[in-house]
## 1
Amino acid sequence: MNSKIDSKDISIIVQGQLFKSEKSSTLDVLLSIRKNYPNAEVILSTWNGSCIPAEYLSLCDQIVLSDDPGDGTYGKTPLNINRQIISSRAGLEKATRSYAIKTRTDLIFTSNTLAQFMGLNLERSPEFSVGNGHICVADFSTRSHVSGLKVPFWVCDFVYAGRREDVTTVFDVKLYLKHDFEYYLNNPKPEYMYRQSDVFQYTPETYFAYYYLKQGRDIPFENSYDSNSVAMGLYCNLLVNNFIVLGEKQLGVTSLKYHLPIHPPRKIMTYPVWAMLYSKQYRSRLPRPNYLQNLVEYVKYKCNKRRKSPFK
């Protein structure tokens, strides 16, 4: 049976450096959680030395502080993968509820619709399933294997929501070492990567998705841009059976930092596209996707592109 998950059964881990701009801050994030998930366990996981305002204390059940490992920057491209691993893992270790939402300090909740999708008990094929159920993720930068930049295992890492043990497993990965940050300084780049300036082996999006989805499987996948036929073929089945890809409206979140959508809908895996792929395999009832959503999101994207973003 499908039912909306009650907020009392959810731990929400707000991870990362505290966010503050001229008009908003992480305080707005915490207030939005209390408004939309009033009985949730709220855990703020950030860094030692952070200046945490007194208002945060009454809005959080726990505040977890960790040592900041740094961003692993090489050249101009920052890679906050270790920061995300450490702060997410530290927060999830304190979580006590059956379900968990890993989110960011700059994502504000606009509704509780995510709880509806977390409550879906969808069909899955044992051959392609890992964990205990589907994990909800964002479409903000999730790549499609059918359009746009066709690469496997590129799943947006802004939000992970599902059974607590499954979300915890996403971050049960080793930290990046210097060798990983500088992988392609010491190894020859494949020909298809010559136009890419990255020198690390995997982006955070692919690192988390690949190691979560490959459990028990030997899948060739050399780097985030490796679109070999084996990986591409498995990606669709593993994605459909283990993740629910949701848009801004379905997630009930929006960003205080970025203009959404980050990419035009034709270049990402949107919820209508995911729902279509799922429906091809199974007849489970899904919340009806709005097939005009891609057009609306595209108009939003074009409008945002014309605005000068203060975050560039």
## 2
Amino acid sequence: MSDLQPIRDFLLCATPGAWVDWALQHPDILLIDHANCEKKAASTALNLMYRYVEHHQLLLKLSRLAREELRHFEQVIALMKSRGIEYEQIAAARYAGELRKQARSHEPARLIDTLLIGAIIEARSCERFAVLAPELDAELSEFYGSLLKSESRHFLDYLKLARELGSPEEVEQRLPVLLQRERELIESPDEEFRFHSGVPLLQ
């Protein structure tokens, strides 16, 4: 299992226990939304490759990342099929969209913020795989544990790209703003369970 301490140090909060309990109550939605997240992660990487063709290192890193995310997507839908879970259309969590609203609109600031947001999302995904793995059945526990290494590398890839393409001062200035918004989303209530939802809304 990958060393998660750098990710725990990076994020401003741990996943609340209430979210873990909620996930265990919705095993089908957990896998459906996990599949959606892998597909979206691949799409995000490809979109960045189309938009920023002048950055050679970005193209190489995100090409590899997109392939890995699609491979994870294939693994998740195979697990769903073996468990008789239909792949339904479900609405996305507000999490990623709300984070992306924080991105500045002018370049190159938009690119730097987008890469930092990518790092934050990958870090949270990795942290959630780690907290879920001990609570799941043996097959899912092993699968989620197997994802930790690649997801933690994706976090580092996005963070490294942001630091290479922006100034260290800019990255250090923007990260606290984005991480604070991420913490608010993770700790605030949501009406529907998703992989990146906050805590359950008390009825």
